[in-house]
Specification:
This protein is an all-beta fold. The chain is built from 2 helices and 22 strands. A 5-stranded mixed β-sheet has the order 15-19-18-17-16, with no helix packed on it. Strand 1 and strand 2 form a beta hairpin. It is globular and about 45 Å long. It binds beta-L-arabinofuranose.
Length: about 350
């Protein structure tokens, strides 16, 4: 939500709303990636801290250092903080900024995927392994070969294949890449140029590397054309997530500077995906980042906002609310405050 709207907000009122209750309030948490593993809910969020760095478009104020994993027996139950699962000091290749993570489970092992900046200021994505969904996780000695940018999200298809989605523009550096190659001269496309798409790669059987060259995903408009760079209300910015509903692949994401969580539908995990609409209207705080998870027979949106910190953009709280689908498979847009 833009900074100038924040003054209008009655935080006392928002923080009392049942729809908007933070899942935990003893620490700040954001970018919640939720999964059901062995019948329990596990949430893998960023752990927001105040690193004392002023706000800028590069996101330097997001100075996170570690991850905690949270668990719930069911959607109504107490949220348990399982302590530090991985700290940046344990990751040989990473220097700072442990941004939005995700996790996957295969053959009884758990894999935590996370972005972080190397000492040269470039984001890459790493993986860490555990026998437990709550960690502690043991990081691989180097980042995933060929990885770049931020916001990894792993989707397991019904055939057991795992796909990793990633990318985010501006602070997430995706605009510096074309065809998986970095060039500091590249910028975000403008005007009637096609917008940059998120990136996808099949994961290798051992879950530790890409099994193929990452590919750019196409997000199309109603006429089958790639969304344009100037279409800020709909173009991809960051926060990829994929889920499958009624045999269709739903790719959801944040539009960044217009603050929507939107979605697009396709017939393959690689896309193309056709834009459908908004899942979540703007929340308090600049960023919006979510996951979508089926718990028993219902679908839930895990998301965050900055209402607990009274609008401090890098001090966010994870939340959850139910998703409703219409008959035609479209998702009913959620107003985060219902007021
Ligand atoms: O939490 C840091 C960054 O903010 C994430 O990587 C983005 O998706 C945004 O939520």
């Amino acid at each position: 939500m833009p900074e100038d709207s924040i003054e209008q907000i009655n935080f006392e009122q928002i923080n009392k709303l049942a729809i908007s209750k933070p899942l935990v309030s003893h620490m700040y948490t954001a970018d919640p990636s939720a999964h059901v593993f062995n019948g329990n809910i596990y949430i893998y969020p960023s752990h927001d801290i105040d690193a004392g760095i002023p706000f800028n478009d590069n996101g330097d104020h997001f100075g996170m250092e570690d991850y905690h994993v949270f668990s719930m027996n069911d959607i109504q139950s107490e949220v348990v903080d399982n302590g530090v699962a991985l700290h940046v000091d344990e990751v040989a290749w990473a220097e700072k900024q442990m941004w939005a993570p995700d996790a996957a489970c295969k053959n009884g092992k758990y894999y935590l995927y996370f972005p972080a900046k190397r000492a040269n200021g470039i984001f890459q994505i790493g993986v860490a392994i555990s026998d437990s969904p709550v960690g502690p996780f043991m990081p691989e000695p180097d980042a995933i070969k060929g990885s770049y940018s931020i916001d990894p999200a792993v989707f397991e298809d019904e055939d057991g294949k795992h796909y990793i989605y990633f990318g985010g523009i501006w602070g997430g550096q995706l605009q510096k890449y074309r065809n998986n190659k970095y060039d500091p001269a590249h910028e975000e496309p403008m005007g009637s140029e096609p917008a940059l798409g998120p990136i996808v790669a099949l994961l290798r059987e051992d879950m530790l590397e890409f099994a193929e060259e990452p590919k750019e995903i196409k997000i199309l408009d109603e006429n089958g054309e790639i969304l344009l760079a100037a279409d800020n209300d709909r173009r991809f910015f960051e926060a990829s997530w994929v889920h499958k509903y009624n045999n269709k692949y739903y790719f959801s994401y944040s539009t960044g500077d217009t603050h929507f969580i939107c979605y697009a539908i396709g017939d393959s995990p690689y896309g193309p995906f056709t834009y459908q609409g908004r899942i979540l209207n703007p929340v308090v705080g600049w960023t919006s980042h979510h996951s979508i998870c089926k718990v028993e027979n219902d679908w839930y949106l895990f998301y965050h906002d900055s209402s607990l910190s009274k609008g401090v953009t890098h001090l966010r709280s994870m939340k959850v609310t139910k998703i409703d689908y219409a008959e035609d498979g479209s998702i009913v847009t959620i107003d985060p405050y219902g007021i």
